[in-house]
Hints:
Elements: H1 16-25, H2 35-55, H3 59-79, H4 84-110, H5 116-144, H6 154-179, H7 182-188, H8 195-200, H9 206-212, H10 219-250
Amino acid sequence: MTAISTVSTPTGPEPLRSTLRRLSAAQKGAAGAPAYSRFVNRPAGRLFAAVAFRLGLTPNAVTGISATFTFTGIALLLAVPASWSLGVAVAACLVLGYMLDAADGQLARLRGGGSPSGEWLDHMVDSVKAVTIHLALLVSLYRFAEVDRGPLLLIPIGYAIVDVVHLFATLLNEQLRRNHGAAERADRSGRRPSTLRSLAVLPTDYGVLALSLVLLGSPHLFFGVYALLFVGTTGYVVLASGRWFREMGRLTA
């Protein structure tokens, strides 16, 4: 995501290792982030950001490349019958797209700060993929997979709804905290993010969903894993909504 905070940029070229070190020092807090995003995707995004910085790419260009990988994977879901090779190709596209999605905001910090238009573009791409990945999967299951075409196909529709609500709530919570100064107070608290919590919310991680598509060669196995992720994400959003509501009520205190 495109961020507004900055990393001071030295004059002249610098080694890739030094760029990575500056990015690591300026990494925004990972409190609450699921384990895959926190321990795999963000470090990979940091590497992509450093390489993009040395190539002279803009954050919006990285967002565009990320979207290209992501929507290529989604298009493959729509057009190609399910198989193990398709699963690997789709998962690779989505995973690369997700890593690049983590790179654009870090690249913005390297370049001196993000912009409202860049943040808007990043969130718009996230919104589109949150819906289309599940709807594309629904079409793929209906067209190609040997699964029951009854109530089970309601799961991708429900998953799309839950993912959109989750994304909207995350963005809204961040904005309200920022408006009331809660985000700044949390940054100054110095509390270490909880590894246990990161593992507990792993089913909500987009990266885990992307990796699960490797199993497309076995539709019943994939659909079982997909359903478990849906249940886990739904449970998290339902339980967290009450906590978020109470937190928002305390912001004006």
